[in-house]
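>> received
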Amino acid sequence: MKLQMRSRLSAMMFLEYFIWGAWYVTLGTWLSTSLRFSGQQIGLAAGTTAVGAILAPFLVGVIADRLFDTQKVLAFLHVVGAILLFAASSQTSFGAFYALMLLYCLCFMPTLALTNSLAFRQMDDPKQEFGAIRVLGSIGWIVAGLIIGSLKLEASAIAMRLAAVASMILGLYCLTLPATPPLGNRSDRFSMKSIFPREAVSLLKERSMLIFVLASFFICIPLQFYYAFTNLFLNQVGVQNAAGKMTGGQMSELFCMILIPWFFRRLGVKYMLVAGMGAWVLRYLLFAYGNATDAMWMFWGGILLHGICYDFFFVTGQIYIDRKADAGFRAAAQGLITFITYGLGMFVGSWLSGFVVEHYTLAAAQGTVTYNWKAIWLFSTIVSALVLLFFLFTFSENETSHRVSERSELKNAVP
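>> returned
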């Protein structure tokens, strides 16, 4: 792939994740501090991404795979998304805000898969080239957090409007990307099997895969506590520039990505996944007992554990699925797991996290709402620990027959 094309795709990835990082991380802080929304309302608002993830495979399967060029679909979704996001930033009632955010996420969440798909189509060797391009997405998320944190925009609508402007820019930029026509046949009848083929679904008949999928679903429930409420939590307990500090999680994610091959060879699938889930337990314990003064190191520890939390579980899981599925159905199998985890799991997590945070609401002076954060994080710790124990004592996988293929796959899977 030529350098010019690499640069254009990298810019696309940077803007794609800059948008998400600009509004999603600080959403709870703005909704609680400025709009006085309840904990349950904040959880539901954060869960709009999960609804988008649930419906994204169907939207992509019908529109991008069969009817229109990918770059045109991306342009349309980002331009419309920019309008919806800007409109949402001006709302003060929960009903109107939620409706606009739901529509926005129905536009945005499919673009995560579409940007990957467009990039793959322009590459000579995706396994070798994609990692170096996708890393710009993480950098985009980091830059968004640093800007919002340093300018102290966490409790204002400006963060969401910044994301809306970036979405409009990306929408127009997508029109300059190479033509990427649909590969599907317009005359083919659309069905559930075309989104989740029988061969992908049949993987769940294998005990180890079923346990992995169940554990992935359940671990995404406490995961939503982190995504929806960490920024609000850090701000309420007195952490300065919380959004900027939270970008340490993405920085550790990049570092841990490099370490995956080394740990994979020594731990194998099961204990890599166990390490990822164990990191969630430890993270929530650190949040529960840390503070913004002499125990600030605990907050830093919880933030920096994000690399292990995400990479060791989700990236390892993607490698595991890729190994288990036949070559012709690996993309469908990955899509099915994404649907179950980031869709269904995060949706349940958004509801439960909002309910729990609302339950531990404390009425403070001058109308400011605070929460019993220690109880909230201990609840998350218990749920994560139960999922960890379930997986540890039920999952078994004969890895010896896969050692050779694992080593060869990992050389290509990690940049």
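>> The chain has 17 helices and two strands.
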